[in-house]
Amino acid sequence: MKTEVYLVRHGETLFNRLGKVQGWCDTPLTIRGIDDLKKTALALAQIHFDNMYSSDLKRAIDTVHLMKNANVVSQIGKIKKLPEFREVFFGSFEGDSIDETWRAVSKAAGIPETEDVKAIIDAVGIYKFREATKKADPRHLAENVEELDLRMQRAVKVLREETRNEGRVLVVSHGDFIKTLGIKYWDQSDGLHDIPFPENGSVTRGILDEDGNFKIVDYNCSADDL
User: Fold this and answer.
1) CATH, residue 170
2) Does the global pTM surpass 0.85?
3) Is 10 part of the annotated catalytic residue set?
């Protein structure tokens, strides 16, 4: 059975608002984040889901419960948490200023220091950006290309096993992780270059086939697009 997967990015959080690096560290949803998610939840309220899943981080768990509570056509039991769908890990940079972090990463990438993450990625490419992040991390704990790709493949495999008898599911994950999935699996991505960062509360839709092959067919859709 093919499974239609709705990937939802969690709502805005405190660290999003404060401009701090947030990967595996966690902060609560803001009022704005909750309000935006209510729009997404309303847009999905009449879509039947066989199940709902989320990353094991609280901002994702709170988001999936908003989706579940608003849906009027699905009978969803206990939400299963999938740690494989966590955000990208930024190691020692977790909780630091985003601007200071990107300056350190740009320096490690060998380009003029900048706070503009897009400028860094445009200059060196998404893969060298990941390697520069690990290099700039004083403890070298940040996920690099290989580590993130292995976790991403594991996430798809785990989701295939969980959803073999489910036709449509919702999974709440995180911006950078969804973007990384998009680079690899979106049918409009060449697999090499950067793509837009998904908005808080956005929906990315993919198809998971019987053999575990995953393809994203709609990326970063707002509530108005659904």
Assistant:
1) 3.40.50.1240
2) yes
3) yes
